[in-house]
Specification:
By secondary structure, the chain is an alpha+beta fold. It has 3 helices and 5 strands.
């Protein structure tokens, strides 16, 4: 049976992907108490990045916005892998996003709105969160965007 969160994803034409395997020595998500922390999630789809490069250079802000949405979807998959059910999310506490940016690009917050908006669409008020949007020189695999989230779960 599909839960409320996954039904909301389906209404958007999305399905929860498999958890992206780690690229190094870490876990995609770790639970401690009622909190789940995800590792940084790249916009990997079917094992590969749809685009690479710097936002404001090879990648447009609009493309990066869509990639940030994919990162958030991958982060939800990582949360589910340790929480068991996305309906256990009490709230998204924090989102941290990294944008590989061309030297003169300053639109990191608008790019990360792709992740924030998706979380709000599928979780409603539980998706409202604090956030940091950071411009960086380069990300793993030359990804344009990386997103990590922290969520609080309802008590067991």
């Amino acid at each position: 049976m599909t839960g409320r969160v996954e039904s909301a994803l389906a209404e958007l034409g999305l399905t929860l992907p498999d958890v992206v395997p780690p690229l190094a020595a870490y876990q995609p998500a770790v639970r401690t108490g009622v909190y789940v922390y995800t590792a940084g999630q790249l916009p990997i789809v079917d094992g590969k990045l749809p685009l690479t490069g710097k936002v404001g250079g090879e990648v447009t802000p609009e493309e990066a916005h869509k990639l940030a949405r994919i990162c958030a979807l991958n982060a939800l998959a990582a949360v589910k892998s340790v929480a068991g059910d996305l309906d256990r999310i009490a709230r998204v506490v924090k989102v941290v996003g990294f944008v590989a940016s061309a030297p003169d690009f300053t639109g990191q917050p608008a790019v990360l709105n792709g992740a924030s908006e998706l979380l709000g669409q599928v979780l409603g008020d539980k998706g409202v969160h604090a956030r940091s949007a950071v411009g960086v020189t380069v990300l793993p695999l030359d990804a344009p965007v990386e997103v990590e989230i922290q969520v609080e779960l309802v008590e067991d």
